[in-house]
């Protein structure tokens, strides 16, 4: 349980963004900056700007626009959905402002809503892009089995009334590691490209009252983590078997339906801008 509490206390993952110094960034032309931030997704319509809906992207762009003196566009490493949280989201943008990065970071912390916390900000090279430069991402999903009072934790994790068996869940996660066609777990299909992804890490950390399912991959399709967690919960209840997940991954079809896990338990934990070097110890 300590790994969840330390995150809520502000012990965020160490960023892997390749920051450079202000001197290296130069003074000619636009500056390229990257921002690492944490946020609580409850109350937001997700990352992406949506007409008439409060989005994280819009809140950030409006605040940065006030600081920089001009409109700008912020690109994120991934578009988290409504209700999904982040401990290590990364966004990049360009600006003609010469406000030092340290002052900009301090001002953002004062001006942004309390549910958004900028962790780090600094210059990056002109070729850096928060999304396209990323080489891997880690998502954590938190759930509380056999929880009798979910009302108080509902915005932050998935409270379940049932007791879950760890063994089949861990067996299924072992089958998830490797290169798979994630079409069976996704909602909708990406425009062009392949639906195959390399999953580097898939593990369960279980405490008596709190579970964390951690997935690290080169990238994810829409709703893959939430659909997978929903399937794993069915396995923990002995309604599905681990081998059935392996079957779905082999054929790329959702052969055995299960309810999708709610967004409240999902956290974008870390974005890697170097090859994944192995499991984090936190």
List keywords for this structure.
single chain, 282 residues, alpha+beta, 7 helices, 10 strands
Helix and strand content put the structural class at alpha+beta
Q: Which whole number gives the mean pLDDT?
A: 92
Helix content: 10-25%
Low-pLDDT windows of residues: none
How many helices? 7
SSE pattern: HHEHEEHEEEHEEEHHE
Strand content is 15-25%
Shape: globular
> How large is the radius of gyration?
19 Å
Number of β-strand runs = 10
Largest sheet: 10 strands, mixed
Kindly, what is the distance between the CA atoms of the first and last residues, rounded to a whole number of angstroms? Answer: 11 Å
Overview of the molecule:
This protein starts with a helix and ends in a 10-residue tail after the last strand. 38% of the residues are buried. Strand 2 and strand 3 form a beta hairpin. 24% of the residues lie in helices and 25% in strands. The radius of gyration is 19 Å and the shape is globular. Strands 1, 2, 3, 4, 5, 6, 7, 8, 9 and 10 form a ten-stranded mixed sheet that branches.
Question: What's the SSE blueprint?
Answer:
Elements: H1 2-8, H2 22-25, E1 31-39, H3 56-68, E2 75-76, E3 85-95, H4 101-111, E4 116-123, E5 136-144, E6 158-159, H5 166-176, E7 178-181, E8 196-206, E9 211-217, H6 224-236, H7 242-251, E10 266-272
Helix pairs in contact: 5-6, 5-7
Give me a quick take on this structure:
By secondary structure, the chain is α+β, with helices and mostly antiparallel strands. Helices cover 24% and strands 25% of the residues. The radius of gyration is 19 Å and the shape is globular.
